[in-house]
Amino acid sequence: MKMRNLMTRHETPTTLQVIPASVATVSIVTALALLLVAAPALSAETRILTRDGALASLEADAETAELSLRIADQVVELPGSSGAGAEALHLVDSTHGGLIAAWLSPAEEGYRLHFANWTSEGWGDLHSLEAGDSAHVFPTRPVVSLAEDRLRISIESEEGETESVRLERILFHVVWQETDGRVRFSPIIFQDGFYVGWNEIVTLSSAFAEAHVDLEPAELPSNLQGLLSVRTEADRGVAVVLADDHYGRLGALRIRALPLSMEILGDSVLDGLLNAADLFDPDNPAMVADKIRAEIIHIGARLDFDPDLSDFMSDRISDWIEQNGSEFGWDLAALAEATRFAALDLGRSVYQLTATYADGREVPLLDVGDFLDAGDHRDDLARLIRLSVTADYAAPEAAGSDPNIHLSTDGSGLAISWDDSETGAVSWIQNGGEGWTEEKTLPTSDSLQPSDVRALIRSSIR
Q1: The whole model's pTM is what?
Q2: In sequence order, what are the residues at sequence separation of 6 or more whose Cβ sits closer than 8 angstroms to the Cβ of residue 388?
Q3: Would you say 404 and 416 are in contact if contact means Cβ atoms under 8 Å apart?
Q4: Arithmetic mean of pLDDT, 32-60
Q5: If DSSP codes are grouped into helix, strand and coil, which group holds residue 345?
């Protein structure tokens, strides 16, 4: 089986930081609350042990403040000039050899975000998150979360021998706020150690506002405007808490990536069809459908799929071929590509999230392509990323100043906490779908700091 690349073809929080928005004019939808950001340089994100046991880190020179890669006894300058004030974000050891580095550099009106892969032969090309034809300048510090997906699979070579192959996808979820208040998202993807060559930009605030067009406008308290909350999750995703100040609502969007195993399944379907020319007859696609059914069960076993999942996928995809195969005539390649995309769409539905609004309305999954800036990879992004609303509540009438926003583990519950500057006590309210609770307060002490109380609140949201 020859592997293809979907993209090139067509919590536990540790550091909490409140980042005020630099918003001159707040737009209809602005973001809410606090950023879970990467820890400073030399954190677990920027200092690692490579597979060879060497210590590698991204760190700034004590005298020049220039950022560089240090690996074993080597000091390697970053591609381009990182400049004084550059900030290390992530350093990843790729299973395909080399390292992938991510860092921010200062720009005249904000930040630029850079990525590059390094091997023993030196740096590859320098990449930046782009908008249009140029590197995007972030007016506020972006949140960059890392999602790693790796598999080892046995495949049959062209000589008929079985070999073990490592597959890897490194995905950086980038979320930020523009000066007009829009909250945006873009994925940066490295496949098997190399950048796939594109990034699309999605306006998340528009996606959240879409759910409210039938509601009556309502005021949002000013202290809940102009802030953003992002949480890295364990399932290749991030949760983003937003506010819609035109309709006075708070909620959360969850962004998840299709598992790498589903990409492999799609590739297997495509290759299985391309290799079945001797069985293909557009007037009778059942024979080739049966072959693909067996192929999916076989690859599902290699990927450790639950047998019920393999049966479900094999039945649905083979049925799709039987129902649609004749529409492509003798163009087997077109049928193979269409079936591959059908398999990926089915995989997305298997991993979908569902949610219900507080008033009982069902929350539909969102088509990420509907909120995409103009780009050439809409279909790729829509098949890779799953976007859903997990919470959507009317904002409380009042909350304390400088509020912190907390999201439950399943994404359906919100809590708002604030500190009393005079007593040091922490107060909070929460909403799990049945309305906002009465205000509760917990005093602090030397053994129970405000950060401890906030951690307890996060863990108690239901």
Answers
A1: 0.74
A2: 253, 254, 256, 352, 353, 354, 355, 363, 365, 366
A3: yes
A4: 64
A5: helix
